[in-house]
């Protein structure tokens, strides 16, 4: 791995993080597939192509292939394009089986796409122009991350307008999670209407303006810590763990600086 | 091995694929965001989008009484079923008096799945559906209460609380 190769650094950090995360969640995922069996709902690729239903041994095999290809792709070798393409395909198969699991659902959506981009970039750099392709690949990863926040903020604006930050929205959401999980932190915050309005307004501003990090990379010093706090907050208060799959993509903002 | 396979690709062609993927991906992102549609794995992430004007919220949870006298809720390995139970029980409650047979089916189905996820839940003797409510009161105060709304005695049938 060259010191000046931001794409290789990103590939290393991203794949290693995912590899460890998947190993740690392996038992939960396998148990879910075994228990839900044929009752599992499966998504259609691009809302069109039905994903194949895997039985437990098939799922275990796909999971092993995913972890192995991620581990291979994280290795500091020259080009791991085929390992990344395999990881992308197996990630699609793997997460399709778990789409109903609350800790999965939309959370790993960017994973197969980023792995595909890295794989294609790896193949393309073989033909030269590696700097331009690396730059474009990391730009695409940044846009994917920014789209999660922007789209989420846009939905709030379209459905509720700025009222979203003023209505008792966040208090009701927090209370729901208190009732669900006995979260004392959620109840504590829900008791403070002014703080809830401030947090809701900050969330809306963060989601709608995160994309500014792309044209103005210096803003990463503000937005990346804000993003980490946002994800830690949703994890602590609501047990929503987007950070597992989204935070490793933050490396794209760091390596290109 | 992977590096050697890469060498077999003609130079230039992968770059075409890469740029095609970038253009297609950008189009899909644009479409899912503006049309508010999900084209898996692309999404418009609609979580918590609507404005909630309600000042009260409720959640249905299971309380499982085991043979050793202890009472547990779904957690750990069985945690993924918590939302599923709530989603299935909520319409039964909302649409009028709970029909015992329908409620039993929802509860027992959830418990059987929970047992497969966590075997410690298997020696259950009684399962309660607890409705937990929270109400916003003026001045930032919140009232929280809970009430058992349905009971299934394993092997005997249900009791509507």
Describe the structure.
- The complex is a heterodimer of chains A (about 260) and B (about 160).
- Chain A has about 260 residues and is mainly α.
- Chain A folds into two domains: about 1-125, no CATH class; about 145-255, no CATH class.
- Chain A is built from twelve helices and two strands.
- Chain A has helices spanning about 5-35, 55-75, 80-95, 110-125, 130-160, 165, 170-180, 185-190, 195-210, 220-240, 245, 250-255; strands at about 45, 50.
- Chain A has a two-stranded antiparallel ribbon.
- Chain A is globular and about 55 Å long.
- Chain B is an alpha+beta fold and about 160 residues long.
- Chain B has four helices and five strands; from the N terminus they run ααββααβββ.
- Chain B has helices at about 1-5, 15-35, 80-95, 100-115, and strands at about 55-65, 70-75, 125-135, 140-155, 155-160.
- In chain B, strands 2-1-3-4-5 form a five-stranded antiparallel beta sheet, covered by helices on one side.
- In chain B, strand 3 (about 125-135) and strand 4 (about 140-155) form a beta hairpin.
- Chains A and B meet through helix 1, strand 1, helix 3, helix 4 and helix 5 of A and helix 1, helix 2, strand 1, helix 3 and helix 4 of B.
Write the layout of secondary structure elements.
The complex is a heterodimer of chains A (257) and B (161).
Chain A: H1 6-36, E1 44-45, E2 49-50, H2 56-74, H3 81-96, H4 110-125, H5 130-160, H6 163-166, H7 169-181, H8 184-190, H9 193-209, H10 220-238, H11 243-246, H12 251-255
Antiparallel strand pairs in A: 1-2
Chain B: H1 2-7, H2 13-35, E1 56-66, E2 71-73, H3 81-94, H4 100-117, E3 124-136, E4 142-153, E5 157-160
Antiparallel strand pairs in B: 1-2, 1-3, 3-4, 4-5
Helix pairs in contact in B: 3-4
């Amino acid at each position: 791995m060259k010191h000046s190769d931001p794409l290789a650094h990103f590939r290393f950090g991203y794949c290693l993080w995912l590899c460890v995360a998947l190993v740690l969640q392996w038992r939960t995922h396998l148990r879910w597939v075994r228990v839900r069996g044929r009752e599992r709902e499966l998504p259609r690729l691009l809302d069109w192509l039905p994903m194949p239903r895997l039985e437990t041994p098939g799922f275990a095999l796909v999971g092993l292939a995913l972890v192995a290809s991620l581990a291979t792709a994280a290795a500091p070798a020259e080009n791991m394009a085929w390992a990344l393409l395999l990881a992308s395909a197996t990630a699609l198969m793997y997460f399709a089986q778990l789409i109903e699991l609350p800790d999965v659902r939309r959370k790993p959506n960017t994973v197969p796409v980023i792995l595909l981009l890295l794989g294609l970039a790896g193949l393309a750099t073989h033909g030269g122009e590696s700097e331009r392709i690396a730059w474009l690949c990391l730009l695409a990863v940044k846009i994917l991350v920014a789209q999660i926040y922007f789209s989420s903020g846009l939905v709030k604006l379209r459905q509720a307008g700025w009222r979203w930050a003023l209505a008792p929205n966040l208090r009701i959401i927090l209370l729901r999670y208190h009732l669900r999980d006995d979260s004392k932190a959620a109840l504590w915050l829900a008791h403070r209407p002014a703080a809830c309005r401030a947090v809701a307004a900050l969330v809306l501003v963060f989601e709608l303006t995160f994309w500014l990090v792309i044209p103005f990379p210096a803003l990463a010093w503000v937005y990346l810590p804000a993003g980490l706090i946002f994800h830690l907050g949703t994890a602590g208060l609501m047990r929503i763990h987007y950070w597992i799959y989204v935070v490793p993509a933050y490396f794209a903002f760091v390596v290109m600086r | 091995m992977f590096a050697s396979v890469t060498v077999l690709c003609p130079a230039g062609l992968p770059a075409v694929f890469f740029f095609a993927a970038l253009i297609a991906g950008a189009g899909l992102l644009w479409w899912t965001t503006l049309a508010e549609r999900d084209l898996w794995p692309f999404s418009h992430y609609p979580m918590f989008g609507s404005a909630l004007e309600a000042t009260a919220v409720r959640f249905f949870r299971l309380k499982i009484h085991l043979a050793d006298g202890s009472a547990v809720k779904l957690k750990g390995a069985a945690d993924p079923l918590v939302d599923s139970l709530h989603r299935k029980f909520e319409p039964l409650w909302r649409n009028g008096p709970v029909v015992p047979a329908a409620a039993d089916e929802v509860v027992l189905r959830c418990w059987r799945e929970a047992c497969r996820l966590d075997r410690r839940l298997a020696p259950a003797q009684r399962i309660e559906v607890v409705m937990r409510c929270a109400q916003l009161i003026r001045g930032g105060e919140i009232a929280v209460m809970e009430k058992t709304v349905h009971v299934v005695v394993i092997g005997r049938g249900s009791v509507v609380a």
